[in-house]
Amino acid sequence: MQRFTALLSAALLSAGLMSATAHAQDAATAPDAAAPTAGADAAAAAQNFSDDDLQKFADASQEIAAISQDYTTRLQGAEGQEAQQEVRVEANEKMVEAVRNSGLEVETFNAIGQAIQQDPEMMKRVQEMAQS
């Protein structure tokens, strides 16, 4: 259980990083009115995740946990804000790659992460998938 909690924490942390990066990019190109709609769409889709998507989320979360651990060590060794930012950007790119390699889009991964925080039954299903 502790292992899964660590995986989930890493996944949600990285999801936050990925969404912050995506939001920053979107904010530069999209009107402000579109932001609430995107969140509403993700919430609406959250109820329709297949077992396959949940398994992909569990797999990607495990990969992200490993990336997070590696880059946390690198971040601690980086000197100066510029070096730390470079480590963060590289870590974020690796996490996005891990999500995409799992077969999920970043938006779907983030939506599942939000959904399992609100749905204990879905959380239990993902925990079981991560343990198998």
Automatic annotation (TrEMBL):
Lipoprotein listed as a keyword: no
InterPro entries: DUF4168 (IPR025433)
Signal peptide: 1-24
DUF4168 domain ranges (all copies): 50-126
Origin superkingdom: Bacteria
Region of interest: Disordered: 25-46
The keyword Signal is assigned to this record: yes
Protein name: DUF4168 domain-containing protein
Lineage: Bacteria, Pseudomonadati, Pseudomonadota, Gammaproteobacteria, Oceanospirillales
